[in-house]
Task: structure prediction
Amino acid sequence: MSNTSKKLNNSTVSPSGLGAYFKEVFNAVKSLFVGLRRTGYYFTHHKEIITQQYPDNRETLNLPERFKGEVVMPHNENNEHRCTGCTACELACPNGTIKVITKFDITPDGKKKKAIDKLVYHLELCTMCNLCITACPSDAIVMAQTFEHSVFDRSQLTKILNNPGSKIMEGIE
Amino acid sequence: MWSFSNIADSIHQWLNETFHPSVAVIFEMIIAGICVISLFAVLGLVLVLMERKVSAWIQIRMGPNRVGPKGMFQSVADTMKLLVKEGMTPSGADKFLFNLAPFIALVVAMLLMAPLAFAKNFQMWNVNIGVLYISAISSVSVISILIAGWSSNNKYSLMGAMRSGAQIVSYELSAGLSILSVVVLAGSLNLNTIIQSQADGWWIFKGHIPVIISFIIFIIAVTAETNRAPFDLAEAESELTAGFHTEYSGMKFALFFLAEYVNVFIVCAIGATLFFGGWMPFHIGHWQSFNHVMDFIPSSLWFFGKTFFLIFVIMWFRWTFPRLRIDQLLNLEWKYLLPISLFNILLVTAMAIAGWYF
Result:
């Protein structure tokens, strides 16, 4: 017992004696002044304030490139998306945010082809972890930078990502 | 010229001409009381806002900026909120002591106002043992914290109060000894005489190294005495929720809050009086013309300027240093500050006898 307490004491006051003791006190005081200098610098340099005045600068708000707001599915001008309905995103999602409901289209040559009916996205469950985006083999979904998601009813947060009547782009398998 | 002492004199004259002298004294007491209470309110509002702005700028934030121009009325809005909140008393608490504690804290702060000289010839009570009075009364403030902690019937409160007791009792020693070094040099316990003795230079310059050491010890000790970070173990938000005032709400909490800020003002005013000459303008030895130019700045401005500078320094400490552990706190006092201040008082005494000061 006494051995351990001795060891603890030795670790705080280094063994080489009086000189080291005063050096430690000096270094402690010096570090306090380093801290004061840093905060004093911040106090006198108001221009370095990084706070965004959000509701006031809504038009000019600059979000960082990697800011993740919600999952969206981009469509082109012909109302076509890139989703093949492979359910890779659904499998990648750790908390069941995405549900892919598939259907079978009949191609002109009479074959059945798998396609999405609805891609249901539960924003209220999403943690913006980005795993679905990385899992998607055809880059059909991306993270949007919108962040004003508040609504009056929880059910409004459940979104269907593909537009009504949309279909898959040519050449995406 | 406009000054506080002129206003006080003319009011005194008018009251004595209009009423019987004993009635006039009663009126003067009432006026002084109202002035102290309104100074309290103004100080509370200004210091809370100042603290929030200083902390914001130190942490590269904006601080309050919504209520009024540049957020100037933020603390007024906060006070309004506290006024309309319910002042709850927990059912398990000792009701009498629980309600008494905030008033003790406030009364102690009010009593400490009495001997302060706010401007030239403007003082409520010119007492010949001013320094002794201040150090005696300021130690009563620990009673209010102990009562609050005990009567709340809450473990956090009790812990905070006990820590605060250990802390204030310890740091009173080195605060007292550092004050004593100026008393030794000035040769008086009267605050007015101490200020007059600095007419040819403030003690921090005249007393050079030993007085600078005792000033540093003073500012550390009063930071601990007013329970502010890095010595805020009595509150310790992250460990004890709010320490001794965990159970307080509404106006009773506001009184504790107000007493804390007024105490900060008072200790800084005492520091300014003892080390920086109180209302005494910046004088250098016998440079008559320079001293005369400095005299044009009103004495009240000098006093409040110095006091607010010291308040800023204490706020700067608060937002820079991390909180000490209780053993580190007591180590700092008993192993470092107390021996240094005991040695320092010896040095100051030798200096005063040998006349090694300017």
Q: What stands out?
A: Chain B touches chain A through 13 residues (CB under 8 Å). The two ends of chain B are 32 Å apart (CA to CA).
